[in-house]
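Recall the central idea of this unit: under ordinary conditions, the amino acid sequence of a chain determines the structure it adopts. In this exercise we apply that idea directly, starting from the sequence alone.
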Amino acid sequence: MLGNQEIQKLMVDGDDLFDKGYKILSKNMPAYPIEEVEVIKNYSNNPLLKGVEESNKVAINLKLNENSKRVWFGNAETNVGNDSFYQFKGNLMNFGNKNKYYFLTNLNNIGYDATGDIENLVRPIRIKEPASIGDNQSSNSLVSLSPNRLSFKQSRTNFNNAGLVSLNAIFNPIEKLKIKTLGFFNLDETDFFRNSIDIVDVSDTNFNNTEDYELRNKQTIAFGKLDIIYNISKTKMLKAITKYNNGDFDDGSSLVFNENSTLENLQRQNTLLDQKINYTNKFKDKKVFLLTGRFIDEKTPQYYRLNNFLYQDLFPENVDANNVSQFSENQMQFAGINVHLLDRKENGHLLELQLGNEFRKDKLWTKFSLLEDDTVLEQPIRYQNQTIYQVNDLFLKSKYRLKIQDYGLIGNLNFHQLFNLLENNGNISSQNPFFINLGIGFDMKINEKNKIISSYSYNTTNAKILDVYSDFALTGFRSFAKGRGDFNQLDASSVIFNYQLGNWSDRFFANTFILYNKNHDFISTNTLLTQNFTQTEKILVQNRAFTNVTSKLDYYFKFILSNLKLDLGYTKSEFKNIVNNSDLREVTSINYFYGLELRSGFKGIFNYNIGTKWTATKIQTTINNSFTDNISFLDLSFVFNNKFDFQLHSERYYFGNLQNDNTYYFLDFETRYKLNENKLTLGVTGKNLFNTERFRNFSASDIGTSTTEYRLLPRFVLLKAEYRF
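Accordingly, the structure predicted from this sequence is:
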């Protein structure tokens, strides 16, 4: 993020290596070859759309110093520490005028994630951007054995052994042709440890569940991407992108559930082939025609095995069953074509027209088996699925932006003719719904410091594959779920308001964002909740509301040479569900937070960054739960001279609903000494210096509360040597 703007690209001397997976670059590339960081406003991913499309995107361009151009250079960094902790990083680069090469590797077991979010590399999403057809398409999986999303640094619980290699190159064989290749290989073994106590109190159902959970994930991911950009002329461009991803995952857990030992194993794969071709013709100075086609084929088969039988109440006749298994085959195919016209008028008005067709076919097959050892006893009828779901969307989209000086008025009108086909266990049905999505909005630039953006939209969306399968499928060691077995189109309205005072680079900057979304109908759940298992059926319910308000304020105080940040937020979610044959329950979830941060900008030896954030959560239904947590931090930086620097990072976590062990402290440090300014740097890094071994937090939901304890990486100290060449 840059201010309140998401960064679209991180480039090196004007060339993009990683698309929206640029965290691989930012996490690994050394800083010494960079001479200048250029911020590009109103950025266009397609250069022929510059000055035509309405863009508020931001990109970063890293300009290299002359000593780092047209030569091979790089660095190697080795870190070794106590208890066999290590990290090795290497970078090898050559940025010439015609060809660019960047090779990197990272090996570590200190919990460091060198890749960032791999999904941003494999599936970069650009919402409502020209030629973005198919960006939101992916296959769905039923079972996942993944660590929890935590409210503190994931690296503290990430017992990993990771290896990353990335080979990237850009070739310009002729002036008009650019070829970009990206190869990515990631091998990782991660361990995760968690103990939890879940207290369920809902609809006259009361019980406690305890879990002692150890999870090991093994993954091997290979990803390749080929971009070919051919500039036919100054006004015509052809771009073809081919991506292939292959992932193998072997996940296993050792679980003591209510004092009963259980083993889980999940073997899964992901195979993705994605091809897109785009032709752009800027046939007049402010008129652009785009033709885009895309094909995606993705498979995510899973084999899940549980060496225990917890479902005696569901299958009482199978007294000899002692374990279960489920095989699921998930396949998605997508094909789409889009014709897009952008016409920027002389008075600044912008007309956009799109005509296209998107076809998606999902195949979801599940086979659930009750076993005695390795012998299949039964495959229950209501727990098997053979679902094929096809959606063909023929659409016409129109958008007009009326520009009057510094004011803009926007109207959207989109027509969709759908052709749906659903086959559930041999039963075939079809429908051909037609609907119109519309929206209006305005943006107002009152002056250079005051800007307002607001919009209203009414949208209809089509049901997804996980909404329409008809029988139960196993989704976890004690959970079953099923869809509605029928078609649905869901209607929703939303209102957005954004007020911006100043610009992110000004001395004073404030930004307030308000979103209100009303689902006139939505997919909710009817859940049978017991101590050993849950069964969830999707149901159609009317009226759900969501409200989100966030406000950020930055102010630079000259007299203390420091920047103050104020962060405020409020979220309210209102929805309905059924639990254990109750009446339809209304559930309200309220969250609000407020935080302060003060960062210095001294020119001397010392700088600081201090902040705190309070988060309050409240759940209201037949039961009420609430709690308040706090996170605070203090960072100190000492740059004694050009050779020697020292950084200290401290954190404090407080959980309001824990009676004991509710406050945790962490202290990390890093120091570096340049033994030879241009060659050799030595350093020491220390993590978790207080050697905090366990971390507990509290959460609440509409069915009860949960107290969870996590095992943390122990204290370690690394000795570092970095050599530049």
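DSSP finds three helices and 37 strands in the chain.
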